[in-house]
Amino acid sequence: MCSGRIDASFVLRAFSKGADGVFIGACHLGECNYMTHGNFQTLSMVSLFKKIMEFVGINPERLKMAFMSGSEAGVYTESVNDFTGKVKTLGALGSSEGLGEDELKSRLEAVERFIPYIKLVKKDKLALRLDEEEQYDRLFTKEEVEALFKEAVTYRIDPEKCRACMICLRKCPVGAIAGGKNLTHTIDQDACIKCGTCFEACPPRFGAIEKISGETLPPPFPENPGNKREVRNGQDASGQL
Ligand code: SF4
Ligand code: SF4
C-alpha cells in the first residue's frame, strides 16, 4: 500500500488489535512517482499521532516512519531491525506504560472516537508540505493536542426547539441521531464523530442544535428514551410551540 494512503485510523486499529509497534516504510520525501506526494501528509499524520500517543500515555516510540527507495534493501532491513529491537525492549503495548488491558482499551477507544474530529479540525495543518523532515517534529505541540481533547466541541439538540423535521437524522454520516416523524431528535454522544453536519443542516428558523465547546455530554439514549417528546405541526403534545 502506498504510504500516502495510511490513515490515522489504520495505525490506531493496529494498536487496538494488539500490535506492540507500528512501522511505516515510505518512499523518500520529494521522490513520489505521482503528483500527490502523499508521504508528506502521512508524515504530518504520524507527527500528530505521536503527540496524541504521548497525551494518552502511550510511548510514541512505538510508532515509526522511515524513508527508503525500492532499491535500498539495506536501509529497509536496518530500519525494521532497529525498530523491532526497540519495540522488544519496550515490551507488550501497555506494559512499559503501566497500563492494564482495560485502561489501554478505553484510551484507544477514546482516541478512535476523536479521530474524525481531529482530522477535520487539523485538516489544513495535516495537508502542509514542509521543506525539512525535522520540521514535522514541531508541527504539532503538546498543548495543541491537549486542547484538541479538552476543548472538543459537542453537539446537542434542544428538545424545546426541535421540530422533528428529520433533516439532521438523514444527513448524519454515522447514524448517531435518533428520532422520527413527530419525535424530537437526540444525539448519541458515543456514536457522534463531531463532524458538525447536523449543526449546519438544522434549518435556521429552528436553530435546534447547539454547539458546545469543552463540555462532555452524557449519551441521551437509549438510557433516556423518555426525552423523545412528541411534536405535531410545530407543537408538542402540551401545545407548546
Ligand atoms: S455532529 Fe451531528 S451529524 Fe456529525 S456525527 Fe455528530 S450527530 Fe452526526
Ligand atoms: S434538523 Fe433541527 S429541527 Fe430538524 S430534527 Fe434535526 S434538530 Fe430537530
Q: Would you give an account of this structure?
A:
This protein has 8 helices and 8 strands. It has 241 residues and is of the alpha+beta class. A hairpin with a 2-residue loop joins strand 4 and strand 5. The longest helix has 21 residues, at 101-121. Residues 218-226 and 236-241 have low confidence and may be disordered.
Blueprint (SSEs and pairs):
Blueprint: H1 8-16, E1 22-26, H2 38-55, E2 63-67, H3 73-90, H4 101-121, H5 123-126, H6 142-150, E3 153-157, H7 167-171, E4 177-180, E5 183-187, H8 197-201, E6 209-213, E7 231-232, E8 235-236
Parallel strand pairs: 1-2
Antiparallel strand pairs: 3-6, 4-5, 7-8
Biggest sheet overview: 2 strands, parallel
Number of helices: 8
Q: What strand order characterises the main sheet?
A: 1-2
Order of helical and strand elements: HEHEHHHHEHEEHEEE
Q: What percentage of the residues does DSSP assign to strands (E)? A: 5-15%
Return residue spans where pLDDT drops below 50 for at least 5 consecutive residues: 218-226, 236-241
> How many distinct beta strands?
8
Rg is 22 Å
Q: Helix proportion of residues, in percent? A: 25-40%
Rough outline: elongated
Nearest-integer average pLDDT = 88
Euclidean distance between termini CA atoms: 55 Å
Bound molecules: iron/sulfur cluster
Structural class: alpha+beta
Summarize the model shown.
This protein is an alpha+beta fold.
Which structural traits does this protein have?
binds iron/sulfur cluster; two-stranded antiparallel sheet; alpha+beta; 8 strands; 241 residues; two-stranded parallel ribbon
